[in-house]
């Protein structure tokens, strides 16, 4: 069964007792974007959804998590990672430019978010630069990834790494011909 992003957003907004306009103002987005997402007429980019959820102080992990995981869990198999992005079906299926972000465990419990990221060729976090009050770093495992941090731009390949203050506007894009996989960490958790 497909995850209904629009219905979930509306559920969260109404539970917070906010109108679409109030959420738009809090999130710094247009009222039209909130309306289109709730009607499933627009599947938001990762950056847009994160910005909208910031208006209700919610992480993407909380948005997509369907059940509470055992908090004392230490080890995780691949199927136990929390899928944060593949449920954004429209944006991820356009031109096979899919991006998936899977989180290890409960990031809030540990104050650290660890992600296994996969970017298909052409996948991009979106034209809206990401900004959040964290620090993040990662290592490219396979493929290549163009990372923009402020006015610095670099294409990283297998074995290359990054580390920066996430308050600086940033963006990730697979500019290669093969999938790119990254293992990253962010503290405090962002998504």
TrEMBL record:
Annotated HTH cro/C1-type domain residues: 9-63
Pfam families membership: Cupin_2 (PF07883), HTH_3 (PF01381)
A GO MF label: DNA binding
Keywords (A to Z) from UniProt: DNA-binding
Lineage top rank: taxon: Bacteria
GO CC annotation, single: cytosol
Keyword field contains Hydrolase: no
Protein name stated in the entry: Cupin domain-containing protein
Signal peptide (from-to): none
